[in-house]
Amino acid sequence: RRERQRFVDKNGRCNVQHGNLGGESSRYLSDLFTTLVDLKWRWNLLIFLLTYTVAWLVMASMWWGIAYLRGDLHQTHDDTYSPCVANVYNFPSAFLFFIETEATIGYGHRYITERCPEGIVLFLFQSLLGSVVDAFLIGCMFIKMSQPKKRAETLMFSRAAVVSQRDGRLCLMFRVGNLRNSHMVSAQIRCKLIKSRQTPEGEFLPLDQCELDVGFGTGADQLFLVSPLTICHEINSESPFFCLSQRSLRSEQFEIVVILEGIVETTGMTCQARTSYTEDEVLWGHRFLPVMSLENGFFRVDYSQFHATFEVPTPPYSVKE
């Protein structure tokens, strides 16, 4: 079977693009900080460099303009003359004075004199503007670097889901695992069934979302994820798969979206990992191989068998049948 378009990729990326926003695109500018954080790294770095470069050149030009209007550039060799900024006699020296002031380096060669009120006002404006720009851009870069997206890459999902019997009930199961020793605090898992359907009134619902119960009532959806766990959805009369059989599975078209959320123990930030299973990634009559073994004083997890399954006797009929 050819690979069809997925709603959510295996790596968790949602295949949804927003178009024809019209005037609504101005909403992105109203939340400029989040817009910058959501940009790719190359655009973030470009905006970071351009903002600082332009701001530095503009402020250095303002210092040079004050010296030019006061005539300080033509009095550099007069020891009795008191300029606005000492030892500023061209644009490069004005630029260096601005950098020394902004970076609080203060080499002591260039400084503002007390006979320049416009220079004092510009100095206050520069200090306020520099603090705002630093807080905005550096805060944006810090938030982007500390995003827990990379933590989700060490959370694993099995490549396929399986359907087999457990405790005498037909169940849909998949496996999740955590590659790091640091735990996911308050880890919770949810499942959504994405399937187009038509209502009795004739309304067509593309990509209709339906909740799959993975233990919400019993608390089984709250995970203690220190070792790989097999998540189980019992197929009963309340399940959307009540009429699903091994034969009808070949003609069905659906997608199961799995969402794993938790708090990263080391940073305290919320992390979300996603994956999906299409109908051709659901194996009827299979079960996952064990990956846990007891060794000298500890339990060992063999991740080479994480995705492995084996066939087990399973009735080919649906629960309804």
UniProtKB/TrEMBL annotation:
The keyword Manganese does not apply. One of its GO terms (cellular component) is plasma membrane. Coiled coil: none annotated. It comes from the Eukaryota. Keywords: Ion channel, Ion transport, Membrane, Potassium, Potassium transport, Transmembrane, Transmembrane helix, Transport, Voltage-gated channel. InterPro entries: Ig_E-set, IRK_C, K_chnl_inward-rec_Kir, K_chnl_inward-rec_Kir3.1, K_chnl_inward-rec_Kir_cyto, Kir_TM. Residues 155-320 form the Inward rectifier potassium channel C-terminal domain. This is G protein-activated inward rectifier potassium channel 1. It comes from Tachuris rubrigastra. The lineage of its organism: Eukaryota, Metazoa, Chordata, Craniata, Vertebrata.
